[in-house]
Design a protein that fits this description.
The chain is mainly α and 1088 residues long. The protein contains 53 helices and 2 strands. Strands 1-2 form a two-stranded antiparallel ribbon. Helix 33 packs antiparallel against helix 34. This is RNA polymerase-associated protein CTR9-like protein.
Length: 1088
């Protein structure tokens, strides 16, 4: 039995206090401690014992008394014990701040929590004033900061202790906890390991911390070892058991789940109030469907814990239980409670998803949207969340955003057929091609997964093929959706024995004898409800194929099995209307109205039929009934009323302005009402534009028609030829005939394949107003070809030909061809008007016989005048032709003269070029001959001159020999050359002189020789062959006469050589330049 001894003051006796028998009233023990002035460590021991026994008030009372000012003054010198008491009080209030009191309002809890933290801070600060460096105080402050969530400041407090003592175990554990909360699991693990190294006998909680760090780091095997070690140290460590159980449950395998639940059960048995174990047990029983256990366990968990995340899990389990049972009100409350226990969504996101589901189910789309978006922030690729958001945006009318989320979901999980089905339904109204591909993908995925493709999906695929005019594919899909049934027998014509007649099948639609006969014949006339829509669509497809017989029989099959199927009546009525049997069509619509007298579509159709039947009063009442049936929300009925008022304004034969204006204003009001309800209704916008155009507001109506045209062009479901025609009418009214013509032509090509006589009439009128008479006539002839019984077109064609003829005859200048064409047109016009005049039913076509006769007479008058003009034009044309022929002959003569001059000039130029080429060739030949002669004479003279120079000049100096050697060499060379070739050269010179004398004068010969010498010298210099011998040769006159004189007198030739040449010639045979020579040398050079 543990006890403490309190020394008696001024005595050796002691007061023995048994710790397990502490008085209930702490005042008794306090009196003893004060009276005996017991050491403060005894105060702390007794206070701690009270705390262990759960006597928190006595614990607090002793510590607060031990930290009073009187005690501080008396024990002023006792520092450590005073600090320990203050730190104990600080830890106590920190503990109070972490826990929460039940059955208190949130505001009260928060206020009390803050008050406790303030008290703890005050005690720690008081302890720091005693000794600012006390490690235990800083550890306490760190724990307080952790409890307050101020992790960074807590880490700084622990760091102060560790800087002074790196092996302080409490500081190491506190810092490890701080790092764990900061997400630095590696650093936390290292700190736990250091603490374990410093103090190997640490309790199992340290191993638990190590296990949690390794679990967060993904080191599951090591984490398991750490948890198991914690269990070895403390076999009843509930936290370790729960951690191991969670790890067993994590793989989601049967064996692991069994082991995990066994550990959870053991933890529950050790400590039935472990909230985490209770939550996991509740989660297990939720999936086993034992909802009563789920509720009991979660309620217990909520009663024993004040930890926010744990309570959030408990509320979530409870909410799921009610959610699965369909109690959306309670489940929503508990989901909301779970969310409130979470500080941030990423801590526990599942209750947000559950709450969003419940809110979506209850129709609170905005709140559901907010919660699902929070889930998407944490899990951006979660397909279920993306699909939920897609559905929410559909409900909110934001189709584009819905499509965006569905496309993303389909991209993430390309094997989810449901996603593609939802995506296809969203895309039907905006992108039929993409919708079709989505449905096809869904069908493929279902077939691959072995699932049966729903009839709805096949029906949607067939409808989309139908809308894209892929009728054969649509029929295949419809037949696939229908499977086997009576429709196969009917479509395969296996019932011809009953003599079914198509028209009779419509007239006798109430007679079901046919199908009774089929049943008696062994055919099963069964039609499941989920196939009615598909069979109806197949009948519509056959109707599109113009196979109205088969279509009408299928509609009757539907009526045989489901007599209240109104749309089948309406389609039979449409078939009758197409056959111009308006009365039968009206009767069929009335049969539909017997099923539902306020069916808007039937009423609107009846109004249209009555309007076509020219029953205006009934039509108006029917349209009003259709509008009233939907409280004015049926756009078609309102549009029909607007059309009625518009037609009434135009139908008034007297054209009463007031009545017309009233009807137009009413039509405008109705069109505007539809646009307010449906801003994208193209037909209402078109009607409003028509009314504005009738009122003369052409610019505004043109803008409206243009916008409607652009919108209709972007949709495959809308084919609005009227807006093209109306836009063309506006251009026509504004006088912009070119654009009007273009618009009419585009409308004809785009919608009517150029085969609509009425639009051709509009086009012809435009050409007429633009005074394009021939285009007008051609257009009318095309219209007559399409509607040969329309006499109005013939009359208009005659008027166009008459107008063309008159305009041609009014021209001041016209050709004979134009006049002849005018005569032909007038003859045709007379023929057309005469044919019309001869008709017996003119009044039925709105013609006046007198007016037609007037046209005939006028055209005949024009024809007579045209013939006169034709004769005059032909005479003028003949004269013009003669003048043109004369002018042509003159032009031909002039051209011949010009060509002759050009030929003569060409021949002269060619002859001149030939003479020039011949002269150049002669000069080149002379140059080559001179060059060859020079080379041969130079080599011979050098061989003869050397011995003579040695004999004659032997006594002179070497310099003298060099100066005179060249001249002597030249002389000998010249004599030798003339001696060996004198006779041949003389003969050649004589021949040349005779030829030259015969052709031209002596003066001309000298000029040509001089020019030849110059050309030869120039060519030689250009060739780079110029040397001393060449210079000497240049000094010799080039004419034949000079060469003869040189041959007769060799000494005279030596004297006549220019000094300049001798001076400029060295013994080496090179010619040197000397710019200071006399003018006579320049003259010689020029002469050469």
């Amino acid at each position: 039995m543990a006890c403490v001894y309190i020394p008696v003051q001024n005595s050796e006796e002691e007061v023995r206090v048994a710790l397990d028998q502490l008085p209930r009233d702490a005042s008794d023990i306090l009196d003893i401690l004060k009276a005996e002035q017991a050491p403060l460590d005894l105060w702390l021991i007794i206070a701690r014992e009270y705390f262990k026994q759960g006597k928190i008030e006595q614990f607090r009372q002793i510590l607060e008394e031990g930290s009073s000012p009187e005690i501080d003054e008396y024990y002023a010198e006792v520092r450590y014990e005073r600090i320990a008491i203050l730190n104990a009080l600080g830890a106590y209030y920190t503990y109070l701040g972490k826990i929460e009191t039940k059955n208190r309002k949130i505001e009260t809890k928060h206020r009390e929590k803050e008050e406790h933290f303030i008290m703890a801070t005050q005690y720690y600060n008081k302890a720091s004033r005693i000794d600012v460096h006390e490690p235990s105080t800083w550890v306490g402050k760190g724990q307080l900061l952790l409890a307050k969530g101020e992790v960074e400041q807590a880490s700084s407090a622990f760091k102060i202790v560790l800087d002074a003592d790196r092996d302080n175990v409490p500081a190491l554990l506190g810092q490890a906890c701080a790092e764990f909360n900061r997400g630095r699991f590696s650093d936390s693990l290292e700190l736990y390991k250091r603490a374990l190294q410093v103090y190997p006998d640490c309790p199992g909680a340290v191993r638990l911390g190590i296990g949690l760090c390794r679990y967060k780091l993904g080191q599951f095997d090591n984490a398991r070892l750490a948890f198991q070690r914690a269990l070895q140290l403390d076999p009843e460590n509930v936290e370790a058991l729960v951690a191991l159980a969670i790890m067993d449950l994590h793989p989601n395998e049967a064996s692991g789940i069994r082991k995990g639940m066994q550990k959870m059960q053991r933890a529950f048995e050790i400590y039935p109030y472990c909230a985490m174990a209770l939550n996991y047990l509740a989660n297990h029983f939720f999936f086993t469907g034992q909802h009563f256990l789920v509720e009991q366990l979660t309620e217990t968990a909520l009663a024993v814990t004040n930890h926010g995340p744990t309570k959030s899990h408990s509320y979530y389990n409870l909410a799921r239980s009610y959610h699965s049972k369909g109690d959306y009100e309670k489940s929503g409350i508990y989901y909301m409670a779970s969310v409130k226990e979470i500080n941030k969504p990423h801590e526990f996101i599942f209750p947000y998803y559950g709450l969003g589901q419940v809110q979506l189910k209850l129709g609170d789309f905005r709140s559901a949207l907010s919660n699902f978006e929070k889930v998407l922030e944490i899990y951006p690729d979660n397909c279920e969340t993306l699909k939920s958001l897609g559905h929410i945006y559909v409900q909110l009318g934001q189709i584009e955003k819905s499509q965006e989320f569905m496309k993303k979901a389909a991209k993430i999980d390309a094997r989810d057929a449901e996603v593609f089905t939802d995506l296809g339904e969203l895309l039907i109204s905006s992108d039929t091609s993409a919708a079709l591909e989505a449905f096809k993908t869904a069908r493929t995925l279902m077939k691959k997964g072995g699932q049966e493709v729903p009839i709805e999906v096949l029906n949607n695929i067939g409808v989309l093929h139908f809308e894209k005019e892929e009728f054969e594919l649509a029929q295949q899909v419809f037949m696939e959706a229908l499977g086997d049934g009576i429709w196969l027998t009917l479509l395969d014509n296996k019932v011809n024995i009953y003599d079914i007649d198509a028209s009779a099948s419509i007239l006798q639609y109430k007679d079901m004898q046919l199908f009774r006969l089929l049943e008696e014949g062994g055919h099963s006339v069964e039609l499941p409800w989920n196939k009615v829509t598909v069979l109806f669509n197949l009948a519509r497809l056959l109707e599109q194929f113009n196979n109205t017989e088969a279509a009408s029989i299928l509609f009757r099959v539907i009526l045989f099995k489901y007599p209240d199927y109104i749309d089948a009546y309406l389609r039979l009525a449409a078939i009758s209307k197409a056959r111009n049997n308006l009365q039968l069509s009206i009767e069929l619509v009335n049969e539909a109205l017997k099923v539902n007298g306020k069916y808007p579509t039937a009423l609107s159709m009846l109004g249209d039929l009555e309007l076509k039947n020219d029953d205006w009063v009934k039509a108006k009442e029917t349209f009003r009934a259709a509008s009233d049936a939907t409280d004015g929300k049926d756009s078609y009925a309102t549009l029909s009323l607007g059309n009625w008022n518009y037609y009434a304004a135009l139908r008034n034969e007297k054209r009463a302005p007031k009545l017309e204006a009233t009807h137009l204003e009413k039509a405008k009001e109705l069109y505007t009402r539809v646009l307010i309800q449906h801003t994208s209704n193209l037909y209402a916008a078109n009607g409003a534009g028509v009314v504005l155009a009738e009122k003369g507001h052409f610019d505004v109506s043109k803008d409206i028609f243009t916008q409607v045209q652009e919108a209709a062009s972007g949709s495959v479901f809308v084919q609005m030829a009227d807006v093209w025609i109306n836009l063309a009418h506006v251009y026509f009214a504004q006088g912009n005939f070119a654009l009007a013509v273009k618009m009419y032509q585009n409308c004809l090509r785009k919608f009517y394949h150029n085969t609509d006589a009425q639009i051709l009439l509009y086009l012809a009128r435009t050409h007429y107003e633009a005074e394009q008479w021939q285009d007008c006539k051609k257009t009318l002839l095309r219209a007559i070809h399409l509607a040969p019984s329309n006499y109005t077109l013939r009359f208009d064609a005659g008027v166009a030909m008459q107008k063309f003829s008159a305009s041609t005859l009014q021209k001041t200048k016209r050709t004979a061809d134009e006049v002849r064409s005018t005569v032909a047109e007038l003859e045709n016009a007379v023929r057309v008007f005469s044919q019309l005049s001869a008709g017996s039913n003119l009044h039925l076509h709105g013609f006046d016989e007198k007016k037609i006769n007037t046209h005939v007479e006028y055209c005949k008058h024009l024809l007579e005048a045209a013939k006169v003009h034709r004769e005059a034009a032909e005479r003028e044309e003949q004269q013009n032709r003669q003048r043109q022929e004369a002018a042509r002959q003159v032009a031909l003569a002039e051209e011949a003269r010009r060509k002759a001059e050009e030929q003569k000039k060409y021949l002269l130029e060619k002859r001149k070029q030939e003479d020039e080429q011949k002269r150049v060739r002669q000069l080149e030949e002379n140059f080559e001959r001179v060059k060859e002669q020079w080379k041969s004479s130079t080599s011979a003279s050098k061989r003869r001159e050397r011995p003579e120079n040695d004999e004659e000049e032997g006594g002179h100096s070497e310099k003298r020999r060099r100066k005179s050697g060249k001249r002597k060499k030249k002389d000998k060379s010249s004599r030798s050359r003339y001696e060996t070739q004198e006779e041949a050269d003389t003969m050649d010179d004589q021949d040349e002189l005779e030829d030259e004398d015969a052709r031209e004068t002596t003066h001309q010969m000298d000029d040509q020789d001089d020019a030849a010498g110059e050309n030869a010298q120039d060519l030689l210099a250009a060739a780079g062959l110029e040397d001393s011998d060449a210079e000497d040769e240049m000094a010799v006159p080039s004419s034949a006469a000079v060469r003869r004189r040189q041959a007769l007198s060799e000494s005279d030739d030596d004297e006549q050589l220019p000094n300049s040449i001798r001076d400029n010639t060295d013994s080496d045979g090179e010619v040197r330049d000397d710019n200071d020579k006399p003018d006579e040398d320049a003259g010689l050079d020029d002469g050469c």
